[in-house]
Specification:
Elements (H helix, E strand, L loop, with lengths): L6 H7 L14 H16 L2 H23 L5 E2 L2 E2 H22 L2 H8 L3 H4 L5 H29 L10 H25 L3 H17 L12 H8 L2 H14 L8 H28 L6
Antiparallel strand pairs: 1-2
Helix pairs in contact: 2-7, 3-4, 3-7, 4-7, 4-8, 4-9, 4-11, 7-8, 8-9, 8-11, 8-12, 11-12
């Protein structure tokens, strides 16, 4: 005699209990899919997201060079255009990292498609890493496009005096603004809120961070204010990588403290943003 077996029971035994997660550990495939999705999103309009910032930044260089550099003015021992170029590259990278990271969640909330980001089996850390990594990628692309435009402009000399500083401060600056952009998108309820952060926080801190001048020309009070601006250390450290001189110092030892500081700042901002994202604030409530 053959033993009777209930097919329903057997099929049920092949499935795990309800509510038991099937993807344990790090969801590499999901994270990679989110990262590629974010990359494709801004590459579909790369004229606007990558090349337009290069043109805008080049206009800054042209205007300030014509206005202040006609007489062969030198700053930190180099022509004014060469002095300004690294700061403009860093400024373009940071602003575009913020713009990219601040769009996805905010657009999802406004269009009612936020469930497409919250429903997949991604932890809050994986969601954060995917969005921030895509923003850093865009920042690097914009930085490359701006650097190419600067290199082609007559009177600008780009050379890597300290490559480690270029890489470190470039990545740290992009990471900081990507994290801030993600945090802003969690807080914002409409595009006006996001634009307010850009216009009243990101842009002023970028322009008043020593991009176009050395802070030694300022009064002691404004020098102190400038040194409290984290953008100052990002741009000055990045400039040190190209010129070997900056407002922070002219040696690796002088800049190393700032390098550690910006890394710690990014770690703190990352933890805060992760906790806010995990709480579901303005996403799940």
């Amino acid at each position: 005699m053959h033993e009777f077996r209930d097919p329903v029971t057997d099929s049920q035994r092949s499935f795990p209990p309800k509510g038991q997660p099937q993807i344990t550990g790090f969801n590499r495939i999901g994270l990679w899919s989110l990262y590629i999705k974010e990359i494709r999103r801004f590459l579909k309009v790369q004229t606007q997201t990558v090349w337009a910032p290069a043109v805008t930044t080049l206009l800054f260089l042209i205007i300030f060079t014509v206005a202040m550099g006609r007489s062969g003015r030198e700053v930190l021992g180099v022509p004014f255009a060469t002095f300004v170029a690294p700061g403009l590259i860093m400024m373009g990278m940071m602003q575009n990292a913020f713009a990219n990271a601040s769009f996805s969640l905010l657009a999802g909330k406004l269009q009612g498609t936020i469930i497409d980001l919250l429903m997949p089996p991604l932890t809050e850390a994986e969601l954060m890493i995917g969005i921030v990594s895509a923003a850093i990628t865009r920042a690097v692309m914009v930085g490359g496009a701006v650097a190419l435009a600067m290199w082609l402009w007559p009177g600008v000399e780009l050379r890597a005096a300290h490559p480690w500083a270029i890489v470190w401060f470039g990545l740290m600056g992009a990471t900081m603004l990507a994290i801030v952009g993600l945090l802003a998108s969690l807080w914002a309820e409409k595009f006006d809120h996001n634009a307010a952060v850009t216009n009243f926080i990101v842009a002023p801190l970028s322009l008043l961070s020593g991009t176009f001048y050395v802070i030694s020309n300022l009064s002691p009070l404004f020098q102190m204010i400038s040194r409290a601006n984290p953008f100052f250390y990002m741009i000055s450290g990045f400039r040190f990588g190209f010129l070997g001189a900056s407002d922070i110092g002219n040696t690796n030892e002088a800049v190393f403290g700032a390098a550690i500081g910006v890394g710690v700042l990014n770690l703190v901002l990352g933890v805060i943003t992760y906790r806010v994202l995990k709480s579901g604030w303005k996403l799940k409530s």
